[in-house]
Amino acid sequence: MRLGGGKRRRVAPKPYVVFCALVTGLLGLLLLTFRPLEDAPRPLVPFARASEFNVSSSDGGTSVEGVLAFQRVAEKACKTVEEMGEDFGKGVGMESLRVRKIIENHFVANGALRVRDFPPEQFCRHGFVLGKTAEAGFGNEMYKVLTAAALSVMLNRSLIIGQTRGKYPFGDYISYSNFTFTVKEIKHLWRQKGCESKYGRKLVMRIDDFNKPLETNVLCSNWKKWKQPIIWFQGTTDSVAAQFFLKNIYSQMRIAAFNLFGDPEVLGLRPNVFGELMRVLISPSEDVDAAVNWVIGGGENPDISLHMRMLMNRSGRAVQAVLRCLKKAIRSQHLMSSRPKVVLVSDTPAVVKSIMSMPNISEFAEVLHFDYDQFKGSMSKGMRISDFRRKDWGSAPRWVAFVDFFLASRAKFAAISGAHRRVGTTYAQLIAALGAAYNLGDKSGSRFLFFSSFQSNLLRDGLKHQVGWGHVWNRYAGPLSCRNQANQCAFTPVLPSAWWDGLWQSPIPRDINRLASYGIRLSGLGNVDSNSLKSHCKKRKNIVRTITFKL
Ligand SMILES: *[C@@H]1O[C@H](CO)[C@@H](O)[C@H](O)[C@H]1NC(C)=O
Ligand SMILES: *[C@@H]1O[C@H](CO)[C@@H](O)[C@H](O)[C@H]1NC(C)=O
Ligand SMILES: *[C@@H]1O[C@H](CO)[C@@H](O)[C@H](O)[C@H]1NC(C)=O
Ligand SMILES: *[C@@H]1O[C@H](CO)[C@@H](O)[C@H](O)[C@H]1NC(C)=O
Ligand SMILES: *[C@@H]1O[C@H](CO)[C@@H](O)[C@H](O)[C@H]1NC(C)=O
């Protein structure tokens, strides 16, 4: 079985060349009349790649019709979401354990517990990465912290969690590991150890903004050589930014990124990096944990979590599709006979209601939900429901999203993401990632699965509408995604792809343009022209933005 082929190993085809290849392939096939198709010599370029141009428009003789027929038999020109997801149905335990070791060793070596006791000379030479957030949506903000953590691993620097007015990000609901520093403590240590006064080293922070394609050095600079004590990689709201280092022009950076994220071309073997990082970095606050345990009620953890991001829409189709997906998840994990516990999380109360009141769902599952009105814990007092971003986040008070998050990540076997429009948002990705990490014991046997549920009306134009980089299927949204698909329930990667390296990944025009602004020439089928990137990097102005902390 193919685990997502590598495009770099393929020749970028010119239409005419592919056409010839098709004809040659056909002639070869005719000569080998009785050989089964699987054994037919496969041309370098898979036929799917021919979908970009119109084969039948060439001088329509019989041979051309023959080619088309062969193409249809040999390989479809597009894939459904379920077909695309076949790479992700096996779990990534081994790879994730490898990365878990790297992360644990990193935080032991570079954790605050050790580094704050460094002798002054060593401490003042040490490097840090800052993870800083604003209080926007949890998924996006958490990815900022996690990107900083990933970068700290790649650069062998310590991690600082940025505070705002003395408070950690979402500090009322989340606790951070004692491996991390705060800026306040670094300033204190910098003074105390005389870094500036004795060693002449100012506390300088270099800022690189990922959202400014013309300024960011994510692709064109060797960050391992940066001398500033602190680095802040700004604007990294999803899994993509950290993975840009996979394409950095310096092999030292690429190797560091590969070491952490795995080979982006081997889709089925990419470790659960963000889940493993969360597992060591964050935990629910006591209040949130109490609410989670209140829902679970002293029993076993839930088996499956089901997240429905509905933006106040109560689409019956989404609900129907997700029920089918739930059944597939139950079958995939062999839970048919046990009436599994399913925890339901949604921004839209009406959808929770309609799922929980389905007449026959209770025949095959026990459905749980956090009903915050009924909860009498400390957080429920004095919390007003604000209208701020109500459409986006739902009508429940803010803290409920954190209870839902940690509740859903307790699932033992699977997470399912359903949506009115955007399937596999950052919030859903992080639920699945943390769930997978919690359930990966010290052995690699666990096979936590992540599913995406698409109702057919979301797929009329294939995955084309999964436009945001924060959405897990964005990398598949291009021309290789079939139009008019039936409902889909697809295995989904716990580490979203940031590139289009897999055989069936292809970009939408918007992403080709966006990559162009970063200096990357991306073909319609997702190939990166690395020569053009090198020359782009040579030509561009090197921008260094820093600030110096007053001690
Ligand atoms: C291919 O070309 C033929 C003839 O020019 C045209 O009728 C057909 O619509 C084209 N198909 C696509 C998919 O562009
Ligand atoms: C990484 O940092 C730690 C702690 O500062 C240090 O002991 C170790 O030698 C470094 N490793 C590499 C490969 O630079
Ligand atoms: C740091 O956190 C770990 C894990 O939560 C805990 O076991 C340990 O005691 C803590 N160490 C210190 C010095 O607080
Ligand atoms: C809900 O979504 C469906 C399907 O996308 C759409 O037809 C309908 O208008 C939406 N309803 C509301 C109230 O937004
Ligand atoms: C629930 O019952 C209806 C009607 O009896 C049936 O059509 C449907 O398939 C059932 N759904 C599930 C999820 O079992």
TrEMBL record:
UniProt keywords, alphabetically: Membrane, Transmembrane, Transmembrane helix
Membrane-spanning residues: 16-34
Keyword field contains Transmembrane helix: yes
Domain of life: Eukaryota
InterPro entries, per database record: DUF7810 (IPR056712)
Protein name: Uncharacterized protein
UniProt source species: Phaseolus angularis (Azuki bean)
